[in-house]
Amino acid sequence: MAEQLSTLHGFVSGKVQGVWFRAFTQQQALAANVCGWAKNLSDGRVEFMLSGAADDLLAVCKALHQGPEHARVDRVDVETLAYKELSGFQIR
Fold first, then answer.
1. Which residue from 13, 16, 29, 60 has the least number of CB within 10 angstroms?
2. CATH architecture of 5-91
3. Domain Acylphosphatase-like, which positions (predicted)?
4. Strand-pair category, 89-91 with 46-53
């Protein structure tokens, strides 16, 4: 049976800028074989898009709820989209 592929789009709120959150997201994604991107928004949130196998996406999302050492994650809003093929992981 083929793995279920999915794409997640979301936003992380809290103290998530200036604490290496995007690099942390990239590190977690690459370790889980997930592609995508992360970028800072002007309102202080980090936006992300992740594509990969459902179990791998779940692992990355769990990590995003914790964040790196100096981050404070208040909220993670995620929506599941139709699978979109992405390559690598970009910090925007």
1. 13
2. 2-Layer Sandwich (3.30)
3. 7-92
4. unpaired
Exposure letters 39-66 (e unless 16+ CB within 10 A, then b): ebeeeebbbbbbbbbeebbebbbebbee
- Mind telling me the catalytic residues? 22, 40
Residue 79 three-state SS: strand
Per-domain residue ranges of the chain: 5-91
Find residue 55's DSSP bridge partners: none
Tokens of 86: 């992405």
Q: What angle do CA 40, 42, 43 make, to 5 degrees?
A: 100
pLDDT means per 10 residues in the chain (92 residues)? 85 97 98 98 98 96 96 97 94 96
Q: Is the pTM of the predicted complex or chain greater than 0.85?
A: yes
